[in-house]
Amino acid sequence: MPKLMFANSTSRVMAARPDDVPDDAKDSYRFLANRMLWSMNDGDIAILPGRVSDAWLSYVADLLGLASPPTVLSLRDHPGDGWYPGARPELAEVLRGLMSGGDSAADPWRLESYIHDRDIAGWERLLGIGAEESVRFAQGTAELVNSKSVFRSMATAFGIPVPEGRVVDRGPELVDGVSELLARTGAVIVKQDVNAGGDGNILLTTVEGGKEAGAHYVVHLTATDRATVTSALRPFGLTEVPDLPAGASPARNVIEVYHESVRELSADMSVPRVGAPTLMSYSDLRMAETWKGSVYPPQNLTPRLHAHLGAYMQQVAIAAQQLGYHGPMNIDAIVTASGELLFNEFNGRVGGTTGIDTIGRRLLGQDYLDHHVLASRIAVPAPGSAILTKALKEQGLLFTPGSDHGVIIYNDTTEETGTVEYVVVGRGWEETSQREEQLGRVLNEL
């Protein structure tokens, strides 16, 4: 069954407004789409928001054992705006032409996406793929399970532990809430209700030198009174009720007590239409301001935390399923200094770790977490795939088909950013960490 893959990582539902995405994060949304190419098979078609290098595309195809590089289209080559099918008539005609070959009755097309939003439901209707899916996701189902306010409401109802906090509108409600929590706890994080990852998160803290993981902006305060908080938040446009057109709703925010974490955890779940959700992979998150990579599986997780993590993540996925969602889901949590497990958010879409789970299963086997440790890192300065693969091969570090250790170039955006994303594969944490150190030395010499 051939696949039509809309890698719509720049979907309009990834943020409440385009202006809510920080300028230094906007380009990265486009690059997220490239990771989905690791799920391609012969005969599939992918639509990306940007372009990928021919060298990296050939590298991916070779490692996956494809007969030839997959067919990849870019929105840049087709007039229109966004992912709404009505705004892309030329792209629709191109796709119809590409899909017309073969026996569609015997081997029907299926559609996959980064996030199954209303635009993707529109493509399903237009192209005659997945009529039942189109009806379900045309109702905004995916938008529900990418909302931090929906997550907090659901978590409270189902007894899933979350940081103390509340959902607020910008203006007096937000300022008063931050001031109250800050006076009691010393650190509060302000999150946009709808925004990918930690982009746009603002940490307000009276603590100097503390950990700042998960925050895009950090503001240090010497007082917690309302006037001080108002002054700190005014540059972010959060202190006044927005003047909106008639009928428009303001974007909400979530405010939470900020906990310094001793570790950050994530899980990828597969949520079926019916039946029990499945844990696909889980990992330690490598955090700076925001996510910078992962280690699969989490290392040295205590039995108690392991049990609680699995139970609560299953409960989150079941709750999302009861809302009508099915598809990929990633769920994030932290472990506090006191050992408390707290959940931050869910995302009903492909996540930063989803593609790495795909790599593990396709190249190492369905049970790869039982016998391997994978370590990833993003935004690593490096030359392009052609130069990097040659250097890694010379040093005996390159992962090759049939191998069970080495370095995989997970994403190559060197033509635009000068950076790559990598995955280091080893038979245990010691081997993986050693190979990652070797990789660092190679990169320093290039």
TrEMBL record:
Superkingdom of origin: Bacteria
Gene3D superfamilies, per the entry: ATP-grasp fold, B domain (3.30.470.20)
Protein keywords: ATP-binding, Nucleotide-binding
Record PROSITE patterns: ATP_GRASP
Molecular-function GO term, any one: metal ion binding
Start and end residues of each ATP-grasp domain: 152-377
Protein name per the record: ATP-grasp domain-containing protein
